[in-house]
Amino acid sequence: xxxxxxxxxxxxxxxxxxxxxxxxxxxxxxxxxxxxxxxxxxxxxxxxxxxxxxxxxxxxxxxxxxxxxxxxxxxxxxxxxxxxxxxxxxxxxxxxxxxxxxxxxxxxxxxxxxxxxxxxxxxxxxxxxxxxxxxxxxxxxxxxxxxxxxxxxxxxxxxxxxxxxxxxxxxxxxxxxxxxxxxxxxxxxxxxxxxxxxxxxxxxxxxxxxxxxxxxxxxxxxxxxxxxxxxxxxxxxxxxxxxxxxxxxxxxxxxxxxxxxxxxxxxxxxxxxxxxxxxxxxxxxxxxxxxxxxxxxxxxxxxxxxxxxxxxxxxxxxxxxxxxxxxxxxxxxxxxxxxxxxxxxxxxxxxxxxxxxxxxxxxxxxxxxxxxx
Length: 373
What we know:
single chain; 373 residues; alpha/beta; Spore Coat Polysaccharide Biosynthesis Protein SpsA, Chain A; 2 domains; ten-stranded mixed β-sheet; 10 strands; globular
C-alpha cells in the first residue's frame, strides 16, 4: 500500500464547538492523497466522540491521557511519529480549509523541489462561520529568503500563518522544535528553517478561513504582555544564532558597531553579534537572552580575550550595554503601573539568576535571599 503524500495535523482540546466543521473541511478536499492525524490531548468535553465519529480510513487517532498544553512541541513530536507523508500540513481544530487548499499547496511544492515550506493568505470567520473583516493580512509575495522575513521573526512577529503552512518533511525533521513552547512554537520552527537557509514561498490564494472567537483572542487585549510570550521569547531569541551568512548578519544587525569587522572566517562570532543586537533593542525578552549569552562569554577567559583582541569588547562594554538598556527601562515604565517596580525588579532578577548563577555559596545565598523576600 502506497504511503499518503501529505500528513495533516490537527491537535484538539475541548474544541467541540468547531471540531466537526474543521475535520469535515479537511475530508472534503479536492486532493485526496493524505492522512489526517487527530491528536486529542485529554479533552474533557465531547471532542473525542466527535473526532471518532468520522468513518474514514485516512484518519489516525492519538488520544493522550495528560493535557500537555495547547500547541506545545511535545504534541507535534507525537504527530510526527505517526506521519508518513512527504509533506506536513499544519491545521487548527477551529479553522476551516477551502476545498482546494491541500491540492494548491502540494502542486506548488511538487513543482519547486528546492522550497522548504509554502504558506498562503487567509480570510476570517466568526464563531458562527460568518465572514468578517478582522484585519488586513499582510502577506508577502513570491520567493522570500531568510533575510526578507528574519527581521519580523526576530521581533517575535510573523506573517507566516500556521493553519496555512505546508512544510517539506525532510526540512522539518531538522528544524528546532521546542518541547514546551506554546506561543513561540511555530515562529521558532519558521525562524530555524529560514536561518539555516531554507526557502519559502507565499501564495496569494486565500486557502484557509481563520476563526475568531473569545478563546483565541481574549489574551490579546488585556493591555499586558502574555507571561508565556515573555519567558518563551528568552530561549527563542537564540535561534537566530544558526544564521551563518555574514552578509545577512550585517544586514540584520546594522545597529551593532562590531558587525563591520566581521570577516569570512568570523562565523564563530555571529552569536556574539546577535546578543549585542538583542541588548540594544526594545524587546525585554530578547535583551535578557542577549544578557545571559554575553554574561557567559565574559566568564570564559579565552573567549573574553578573543573579543577584546577582535572587537575591543570586554566587561566595561558589556556593563554599558545593560546599564543603558532601552528595553529594560521601557519595560519598567510600562509594567510599573501593573505591579510595583520593586516586585518587578525582583521577578526579573530571579529569572536571570535561574539561568546564570554559578554553583558557589555567594550566588546561592543571594538567590535564597531573593526567594525569601
